[in-house]
């Protein structure tokens, strides 16, 4: 099952995500959500979503390196970037954005980090790609693209311009 | 004169720490001195510190990265600020911290230090943060710890104080962005200052345009020439056109009375006042590692003035220490090999 991922129009997928998000916000009565992108790919997707949805609260960015569960095994990612959440998290509706949802460990770390900034009223997870093979009981609320990939296959978002998906066997 | 310099210049003999502090992959394992570390490593320390600086903005000022690690602050010499910031840095990383203040006499070195270390290792310590009045103490401990244990030098005699130097570099970089255009003047007791020595190595490695030291001849080490600095004996010429002024604390506890006539006279010649500040560039930044002797090293008006970044240095010190601790403990040694 070798889908040609490189030919996928990422902008169209993000457009689809934006529409789904707008619907969901309307249904849940969320007026001014706070969007947070996960470094680095998630932030690229979040930047586009933030713009398409015309959100008023500035975009937040987090790097989950200090919250990873594999620090004792693989050590620190030296390319770690500062996290920056420009407004209050407390009692806000958060839209958390990542590029690829895989094991769920990144999302677990991101949730922990967000909660260290305050207690949000809700968190909605939006991902560009859900590739399956979850190791934690997490799911995304908004999915741009569902892929059923064998575990040894990796999918990666490259960017920021243009955004494209890349696969390689690990 | 030369005899009064003797003890200081022997303790300045730097142990060869540069190889000891890196693992086989060239990553930081111990942090003992800035001497011999590459520009890449110094830059990496500052980059990681930049990422840690946002932790102070969180409601819960903590990240779980060193959860389950045990860090021992081994202070054989008194210190409030340095110990507090190491303590806080370790706690913000979620490590467990033990603070040991060990009063030592000159005779209880050697064996007793190793005994202390063995005991703490038996309690599964992962890192020692060491301050000691003897040069080379942290190096000695690093040479004798188990392979999974890291050592950070929090000041050894008049040899090195690398985390202070790196927090100063970090403060300069945050303010001035690049080092290559900077003229930096270090003023004061260069002879007894482990901070100055670590700063000079770091500034030269990071490519500062010019590093100057400004001090009375009696407070300069005999090997100043080999340090890669320009020496000035008066403030007016030394401060001309500089971007950064780093004041050092007069270490009265380390000084024989013969080196300085009086604090008053020192202030007259080398104390930083607003008048003298005018010799430097208009956007000069003024730094001091603390604690300040107001009216001896600098005027209160300068210490509290618009050029001063002294309190930023304290805040940045926490981020730098978090970075060094995480890098040294995050090199995946032992655990999964």
Report on the architecture of this protein.
- The complex is a heterodimer of chains A (170) and B (337).
- Chain A is an alpha/beta fold and 170 residues long.
- Chain A has one domain (5-169): Rossmann fold, CATH 3.40.50.
- In chain A, 29% of the residues lie in helices and 25% in strands.
- Chain A contains four helices and seven strands; from the N terminus they run αβαβαβαββββ.
- In chain A, the strands form two sheets. Chain A has a five-stranded parallel sheet.
- In chain A, helix 1 packs across helix 2 (41-53).
- Chain A starts with 9 loop residues before the first helix and ends with a strand.
- In chain B, the strands form two sheets. Chain B has a five-stranded parallel sheet. Chain B has a four-stranded parallel sheet with strand order 2-1-3-4.
- With 337 residues, chain B is of the alpha/beta class.
- Chain B has twelve helices and nine strands.
- Chain B folds into two domains: 2-160 and 315-329, Rossmann fold (3-Layer(aba) Sandwich); 162-313, Rossmann fold.
- The interface between A and B is medium-sized, with 25 and 25 residues.
Q: What's the CATH topology label of chain A?
A: Rossmann fold
pLDDT under 50 segments of chain A (min length 5)?
none
Mean model confidence by pLDDT of chain A: 93
| The CATH architecture of chain A | 3-Layer(aba) Sandwich
Structural class of chain B: alpha/beta
Question: Can you tell me the overall shape of chain B?
Answer: globular
Query: Helix count of chain A, per DSSP?
Result: 4
- Quickly name the level 1 CATH class of the largest domain in chain B: Alpha Beta
């Amino acid at each position: 099952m070798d889908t040609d991922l490189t030919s996928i129009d990422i902008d169209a997928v993000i457009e689809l995500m934006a529409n789904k998000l707008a619907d969901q916000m309307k249904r849940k009565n969320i007026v001014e959500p706070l969007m947070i992108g996960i470094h680095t790919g998630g932030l690229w997707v979040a930047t586009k979503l933030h713009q398409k949805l015309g959100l008023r609260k500035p975009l937040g960015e987090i790097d989950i390196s200090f919250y990873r569960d594999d620090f004792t095994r693989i050590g620190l990612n030296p390319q770690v970037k500062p996290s920056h959440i420009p407004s209050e998290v407390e009692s806000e509706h958060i839209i958390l954005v990542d590029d690829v949802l895989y094991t769920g460990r990144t999302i677990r770390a991101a949730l922990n980090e967000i909660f260290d900034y305050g207690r949000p009223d809700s968190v909605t997870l939006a991902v560009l790609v859900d590739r399956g093979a979850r190791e934690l009981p997490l799911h995304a609320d908004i999915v741009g693209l569902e892929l059923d990939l064998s575990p040894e296959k990796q999918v990666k978002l490259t960017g920021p311009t243009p955004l494209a998906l890349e696969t390689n066997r690990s | 004169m030369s005899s009064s310099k003797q003890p200081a210049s022997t303790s300045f003999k730097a142990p060869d720490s540069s190889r000891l502090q890196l693992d086989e992959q060239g990553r930081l394992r111990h942090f003992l001195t800035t001497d011999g570390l590459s520009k890449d490593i110094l830059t990496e320390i500052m980059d990681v510190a930049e990422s840690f600086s946002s932790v102070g903005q969180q409601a819960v000022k903590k990240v779980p990265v060193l959860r389950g690690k045990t860090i021992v602050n081994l202070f054989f010499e008194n210190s409030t600020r340095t110990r507090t910031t190491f303590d806080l840095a370790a706690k913000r990383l979620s490590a467990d911290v033990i603070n040991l203040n060990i009063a030592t006499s000159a005779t209880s070195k050697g064996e007793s230090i190793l005994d202390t270390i063995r005991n703490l290792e038996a309690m599964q310590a992962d890192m020692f943060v060491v301050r000691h009045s003897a040069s080379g103490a942290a190096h000695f401990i690093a040479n004798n710890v188990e392979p999974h244990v890291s050592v950070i030098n929090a000041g050894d005699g008049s040899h090195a104080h690398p985390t202070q130097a790196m927090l100063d570099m970090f403060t300069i970089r945050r303010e001035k962005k690049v080092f290559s255009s900077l003229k930096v003047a270090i003023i004061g007791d260069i002879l007894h200052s482990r901070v100055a020595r670590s700063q000079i190595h770091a500034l030269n490695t990071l490519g500062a345009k010019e590093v100057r030291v400004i001090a009375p001849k009696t407070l300069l080490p005999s090997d100043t020439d080999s340090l890669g600095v320009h020496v000035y004996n008066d403030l007016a010429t030394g401060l001309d056109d500089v971007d950064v002024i780093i004041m050092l604390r007069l270490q009265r506890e380390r000084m024989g009375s013969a080196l300085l006539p009086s604090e008053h006279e020192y202030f007259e010649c080398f104390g930083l006042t607003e008048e003298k500040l005018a010799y430097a560039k208009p956007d000069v930044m003024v730094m001091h590692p603390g604690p300040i002797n107001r009216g001896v090293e600098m005027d209160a008006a300068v210490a509290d003035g618009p050029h001063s970044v002294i309190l930023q240095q304290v805040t940045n010190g926490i981020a730098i220490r978090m970075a060094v601790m995480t890098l040294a403990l995050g090199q995946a040694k032992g655990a999964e090999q």
